[in-house]
């Protein structure tokens, strides 16, 4: 058993399209349990801090502007191999190349506006969860 937690974000494009419910249902059907869910609007500073690992990349400024352009839904997902499972359900970064039926294929537009974020390793999952949720908050939600 490898029960993990990962951070998921429904990005502003998908929230704006009204597909939040569809995305959450597809994650649940895929074996992931939303432990915590919060709707919020990232400030530009928060987006820049969250994506700091990409700060030297050419897409960084545009990505951070996009991520702070409207409400997002941030979630802690729990389940067997949750980090890899979430990435599988999301599909490739570029929505245009994401496999049919994946979240990015169904709900994204291009390589930037790709509907969802998911942590890519146990280390980033831990750091990204802590970016949005306190330990006390998660302890209170854990059964
Ligand atoms: O999100 P993922 O881990 O699949 O990709 P990433 O390489 O960590 O990039 C983070 C985010 O930056 C992507 O999800 C896209 O929204 C954006 N991005 C972009 O706008 N242009 C690129 N060439 C690559 C990524
Ligand atoms: Mg990434």
Overview of the molecule:
- The protein has 143 residues and is an alpha+beta fold.
- The chain has a single domain (3-141), classed as Alpha-Beta Plaits (2-Layer Sandwich), CATH 3.30.70.
- It has 8 helices and 4 strands; from the N terminus they run E-H-H-E-H-H-E-H-H-E-H-H.
- Strands 2-3-1-4 form a 4-stranded antiparallel β-sheet, with helices on both faces.
- The relative contact order is 0.24.
- The model has no long low-confidence stretch (mean pLDDT 97).
Q: Choose one word for the global shape.
A: globular
| CATH architecture term | 2-Layer Sandwich
CATH topology: Alpha-Beta Plaits
Mean pLDDT, all residues: 97
Number of contiguous helices: 8
Helix content: 40-55%
- Gap between N and C termini, in Å? 17 Å
Regions with pLDDT < 50 over 5+ consecutive residues?
A: none
The CATH superfamily appears as Nucleoside diphosphate kinase-like domain
Query: How many separate structural domains?
Result: 1
Radius of gyration: 14 Å
Main sheet makeup? 4 strands, antiparallel
Spell out the key features of this protein.
143 residues, Alpha-Beta Plaits, 4-stranded antiparallel β-sheet, 4 strands, 44% helix, globular, binds cytidine-5'-diphosphate
Summarize the structure.
The protein contains eight helices and four strands. It is α+β, with helices and mostly antiparallel strands and 143 residues long. The two termini are 17 Å apart.
